[in-house]
Amino acid sequence: MLATAVVAAVTTPVVLLSVTPALADAKASVASQAQQRGSQDKPSIEELEKAAEKAQKAYDDAEAAHQAARVVLDAALSDDAPLSVAAKAARAEATAAATAKANADTALADAKAALAALPETATDEEKTAAEKAVTDAETAAASAAGAKTTADEKATAADRARDDARVAAVREYGKVQNALKEALKEKEAADKALADAQEEAGEPEEPSCVPEGKLTTVVTGLPSKLVAGATTSFSVRVTNGTKKSMDRVSPSVNFHATDKGGYNVIDDAFQLQWSTAAFPAWQNVGDDHKAGTISPLKAGAHIDVKLRLKIDAKAPAGHGLAFVSGEYSNFDESCGGNFATEYAFDLLSAGSTVDDDVDDAKPGGTTPPASDNKPQGGTSGTVKNSSDDDGSLASTGSSSLLPQFAAAAGGALALGAAAVFTARRRRSNSAA
């Protein structure tokens, strides 16, 4: 796989820069069109919409090329890359050849010294044997010198091939980075031109995105008890249960927790990364809580997103909720998403022992979008475990929130679909 990636970087850079033609088309921005046509022949709303769609497509292609180029670059710079392995082996051969030559030279010097040290009383047989030893040592030394020269040349060539591949991969990555920046500029310009024209024409903006219950995001393998300082792997299956393909789907995963007292928010203790079959390298989940982007997700299809959660060892024991949702946007301006599903868990202090058969966190209620900053609960109000007076989540895995969670979480529960349902498509795309 590494060999294929490196070859792609060195011999077929056009694969990584395939976004260029689309970007060139998208550069026919609204501003330049207006200059060409003159102030009396402005582009129509329909033309501006097509230009914005084309710029969005060019940006999506540039983003995909950028991610692919990063994989190629990492492969080329890896010590496990075929050219790196070959260079290391060739250098080891050169070192061994140098040692062999040094030993052969020493043997020749010893043979010559032995011949010179023969006494005048030495027999002809002794002289003949000493002379033969010198001749044999000279032959061996010459052979070792030739082998060293060959090994040195091979090592130099291997180093050069490895370095050339790395330089080529870096250069291509730089080109793709520039293409991505340019595509973003064009997309933003096209979006602004369309918005300005719509405002000038007095047209309403696109309708808000809509809820889509057939887009599902289901968590598997997340334990109901997590330990501070530990790393936990789980996954989210994103399924398009509709009859239409979704051009861009982004699963959203966010962890919120407090200590047992309920007023010390410890969200910063959770570090989350994502990985998919298309992009196997682990990527950090950012402040937008998006665990990658699936482009596209066909009708009836599903994709598993791998997730890796690391909790700071200094995090105190407490309780938490994982919020999992998904949103989509299409090139035809349609967009939407599902409500965030809550998964309750207990947070144990570092060093705690958890049984191997601990239950997985169960899905509770859903979090619909909120117009204010109040948390939207699950299926019921506050629930206390009858055997626990500290206000912990019910042992049944209820999706209800603690009073202290309500005070601390605030807008955290309006994640996922809420952001989609209150934003325009182009704005959500620009933030992607």
Describe the protein's architecture and organization.
The protein has 432 residues and is an alpha+beta fold. The protein is built from 10 helices and 12 strands. The protein has helices at residues 2-11, 13-16, 19-26, 30-37, 45-77, 82-116, 124-201, 403-409, 417-421, 425-431; strands at 210-211, 215-220, 225-227, 231-240, 248-259, 270-275, 283-284, 302-311, 318-329, 335-337, 340-348, 363-367. The strands form 2 sheets. Strands 1, 3, 5, 9, 10, 11 and 12 form a 7-stranded mixed sheet that branches. Helix 6 (82-116) runs antiparallel to helix 7.
Keywords for this structure?
432 residues; alpha+beta; 7-stranded mixed beta sheet; 19% strand; disordered N terminus; disordered C terminus
Write the layout of secondary structure elements.
Layout: H1 2-11, H2 13-16, H3 19-26, H4 30-37, H5 45-77, H6 82-116, H7 124-201, E1 210-211, E2 215-220, E3 225-227, E4 231-240, E5 248-259, E6 270-275, E7 283-284, E8 302-311, E9 318-329, E10 335-337, E11 340-348, E12 363-367, H8 403-409, H9 417-421, H10 425-431
Parallel strand pairs: 1-10, 3-11
Antiparallel strand pairs: 2-4, 4-8, 5-9, 6-7, 6-8, 9-10, 9-11, 11-12
Helix pairs in contact: 1-5, 1-7, 3-5, 3-7, 5-7, 6-7
